[in-house]
Input
Amino acid sequence: MARVTIHGGDLVVRPSWRERAVMRYGLVRAPLAAVARVEVLAEPWRCLRGSRESGLSIPDRAWLGVWRHPAGRDWIAVRPWRGPVLMVELRPPAEFARVALSVADPQEQAARLCGAVDEALVTCEPRGADADLTAPPPV
Output
């Protein structure tokens, strides 16, 4: 399972050795100033867009790799059966437009990341720990 850390002024996503082998892609690093939005998705499939450029896609089991779409490229390390997914949307100069990954506690990770980023620059939707992630979003 990938780990999200904040090192200096950078967001660092470090995939496990198995994920690196499958994805053929290692460490992802982006400046915190490039973070545009942090969100926890109750439906993991919502993080997918475009087509797989590299990696592995096993429906409802694992999506690991880089997805290409008209707006750029996304780095995906998601195991849908594990539940909600942490999704971070990025803007240039970041290499990827979006990073989505399964983490142990996505709400806690999102709150920690939102706390590290300047509130004026980012939209944070970590959905508090008391939120019902199985309920559909309000319309």
In short: Strands lie at 3-7, 10-14, 28-31, 35-41, 51-58, 62-69, 72-78, 85-90, 98-101, 123-125.
